[in-house]
Amino acid sequence: MNLTIADLKKGESAVITDSSSNDIPLKLLEMGCLPGNEVKLLQLAPFSDPMYLNVNDSFLAIRKETASLIVIEKINE
Amino acid sequence: MSKQINVALIGNPNTGKTSVFNALTGLNQKVGNYPGITVDKKHGICKLSRGVKAHILDLPGTYSLNASSLDENVVIELLLNKNDKDYPDVAVIVSDVENLKRNLLLFTQIKDLKIPTLLVINMSDVMKRKGISLDVDVLEEKLNTKIALVSTRKGTGIQELKKLIEQYKTLPKKQCLDASTIEPAYFERLQKAFPNQDIYKLWLVITQDANFGKVSRQELDVSKFKTKSTSELKRLQQKEAIKRYQFINNVLKEGQNIDRSKARDLRSKLDRVLIHKVWGYIIFFIILLTIFQAIYDWATFPMDLIDTTFAGIAEWVKSSYPNGGKVTDLVAEGIVSGIGGIVIFIPQIAFLFLFISILEESGYMSRVVFLMDRIMRRFGLSGKSLVPLISGTACAIPAVMATRNIENWKERLITILVTPFTTCSARLPVYLIIIALIIPEGYIFGLSYQALTLMLLYLIGFGMAVFSAYVLDRIMKTNRKTFFVVEMPNYKLPLLKNVIITVFEKTKTFVFEAGKIILAISVILWVLASYGPDEKFNNAEAIVAEQYADLSDAKIDDKVAAYRLEHSYIGIIGKTIEPVIKPLGYDWKIGIGLVASFAAREVFVGTLATIYSIGSATENESIDTIKTKMSNEIYEDGSKVFTFASGISLLLFYAFAMQCMSTLAIVKRETKSWKWPMIQLIGMSAIAYIFALIAFQILK
Q1: CB contact at 8 A, B23 and B154
Q2: Which of A20, A43, A52 sits opposite B235 (nearest CB)?
Q3: CATH number of the domain bearing residue A18
Q4: Which of B30, B229, B292, B511 has its CA 20 to 30 A from that of B150?
Q5: Is residue B523 one of the residues assigned to a domain?
């Protein structure tokens, strides 16, 4: 099982390794959700949905459903 | 005609693009519409120097040239169509200094279209505070452009920007990078198939989401060129984005330096509270209460003032031209009160948009969406639907206008359609009098039955709004998957100028767009109430005088007014619809009230007062008098008209029926067609009828 953004805990960072799923909106890619970029989970709404992220210097909120499509590798700090 | 330069302002949302627009044009701007769609077209004139003017078009905010909404599609349509009269001589890309990296993605795309392009870096005043330094010369060279460092907050850099716009012809046209290198073979074949077309334009046309726009397809049929599947294209688009970011990162490595230790983190401090799982909701609730208080309570002072002023004008018209007959009446009672009926909404609209623009400008609105998305999503609504739904409790008109902020068309349409179910303040007078009539005074757990009934009616309204949203969400099909990507912008102090312009524009839109329809219907209703087809209407005075020879003059006048109304066209309509409303427990007098309610629901009370001929009593007296009259009202067989059953039926009818022409007018304006207001009118009235029918038949 690959880890995805949906698996991140509050405050954790990771590097995106794959965002090629067809169900990821292009807008998200264009905002910087691309392989190699760092992503940090800043905050969660109740029931962990939506998720508030910092990706590629952009601050954005996406639904958990979308987050679970973006594959990551955690950064050990 | 003097020389005029066509300028298009383009940029990501939340970059202060509109502030730049406001700074360039001042109040010299207009809001129009793009033909056929509900996107505002904001444009204005800016004087650059003697004899040289610029026509500035403020295009909707977009993150890239790949449209994912109707708003964004406007940008692409324009930039791909050289024959459009607004096609820019120069594109001004507005970016903000803190999000330069992401902003530059759009910039490099537009450069690829070979339009002369200028870069505005806004919010330059915060650079020092955020530890950002820029090497403008390096950036200009690497990006093949000219850069204006602007601070709309401090008002700096605007003159320089104007100068650069004027010299647009000297801008380098060279692209930043060659997008076709992501798959040279494919792009080569594409170019061969359409040798006369610009390659990047071709690529954009091919990859545009088919659900949007005709994107220059009229001149360019790319459907034959289908050598790649959608997912292959998507992969290429991803490659393109990666390539662009590689370029941008290289440029910024040389041209930008960020010292992160200097950044004060206002965002995370505020976010910790404002979107906290508990505090976030409490704060939002308090903000909503304040908005509600403002439109419900604070607005009443100016509204009363408007009310008395227009009543005064009407009175003045009557007394100044006593011999004008019907013309005087038309002016005084039809036109003046019709205009009054429009102007009366201005305070509520202005207040609501004052708050909304402050919430938007400050960056808080995105947090609301974040907090509410999960709850509202279930009902096919957006997190942003909550503000319209709550403000609908004061008045549906500003609430419907407030749905503009919802980007997703389906969510926005559903919000527009269900908002009128929430209990607006115009329903209140009707509720109060009927509750007083049929609900006994008494207390349960220290709460009065009457107050509980009123609260129940508010809950029913809100519940019906949410329920019908749920149903509509199931029924309405969209061929687009809705997705949710919300930028959480930085918090900032709202610019007073932007707030004022928003309030002013919204109010103007209402007065001139919806106002026309409201005025027309007011006049029609007035005519229906002031004319009758036969002798009985025209000789009302003589007939009544004969019947009630022993009454005082004032009493006679009341009786005449009642008799007139009964035999006017509206009275005839009331009698005609009696068979239809009989099963709900209403007689023709209530029928007249229902028809007259179309002007505004609260008119119901006034109309009944006229019908029961108690017009000349003072206000406090009249409430009591009308209550007594209503409870004494009997059918020919001696049974009461206003029973518990017919009262509940009437309450439910008012709770659900679409009886407000002003709302219909504004829905027509916001959805650009009569289809949706008609669906609303018929659907809501049907629901109202069915509920009222069931209630009456069970309870009677």
Answers
A1: no
A2: A20
A3: 2.30.30.90
A4: B30
A5: yes
